[in-house]
Amino acid sequence: MTFPAMAPAFGAGGSEPYERVLLGAASALTLRDAAAGRPGVAVDVGRFLGDPSAAERRLLRARRGPVLDIGCGPGRMLLAAARARRPALGIDVSAASVAIAAARGVIALHGSVFDALPAEGTWATALLLDGNIGIGGDPNLLLARCAELLHPAGVIVVETHPDEDRDARFAGIVEDDSGAVSETFPWAEAGANALRRHARAAGLTCRREWRAAGRSFAEYGF
After folding, report:
1. Are 84 and 61 a contacting pair, CB within 8 Å?
2. Mind telling me which InterPro entries this protein's record contains (predicted)?
3. Integer CA distances (angstroms), 7 to 53, 109, 137, 187, 212, in order
4. What is the pLDDT of residues 9-57, one digit of tens each?
5. Which of 20, 43, 64, 117 is the most exposed place for a label (fewest CB within 10 A)?
6. CA-CA distances (angstroms) from residue 47 to 37, 62, 73, 200?
């Protein structure tokens, strides 16, 4: 399958608010629909920079084989994989995230999931956590790309929107607490009901859905 060149990435461009928060130049980040008048939602960058939670550690301990963390940020889930003794690689378009991950002793590549990646077709688990089903603004396309990366027995683990029926695509924008604003970027949000449809369109089947520590997850395979 041929994938289009990627548009601007999450939080990038403009005054680079996402990288400012990662690097400590600002302390809070909000994501919103650039075309909507309603308030945005807080992005928990502190969680990205922290240690993996007990639920996240359990999630990785249940995996077998190599893990690809898509939109890995500063490497929290890569740390969880290392502690579970699972081989893992992260990919992220944020240079600051990749640098922080490297400083934490884990391996992440600076780039897009739509780029050519190492070991395509062999990954046992692909992770799309922390809202990363939104990458590229098209869950169908993203899941189809993830399917290309998987081993035939592999699975995609997605953190789903808490509203099971949520299925939105929009031009996103992020802003930090100092007023620094990103360029707009394509983004999406999808709950479990919507993701079942998107998964079927990508040739995938929902294996299971569950909640842990107030968060919602689903697993898809062939």
Report:
1. yes
2. SAM-dependent_MTases_sf
3. 32, 18, 9, 10, 33
4. 898 899 999 999 999 999 999 999 999 777 899 999 999 999 999 999 9
5. 64
6. 27, 21, 10, 31
Q: Report the Cα–Cα distance between both ends of the chain, in Å, rounded.
A: 17
Overall pTM > 0.85: yes
**Residue 28 covered by a domain:** no
- Evaluate whether residue 72 is within a structural domain: yes
217: domain CATH number is 3.40.50.150
Residue listed under structure tokens 């997850």: 217
DSSP reduced 3-state for 203: coil
Contact 46, 216 (CB under 8 A): no
- Please give the structure tokens belonging to residue 68: 């690809």
Strands 88-92 and 108-110: parallel
Sorted by sequence, the CB contacts under 8 Å of residue 197 that are 6+ apart come out as: 167
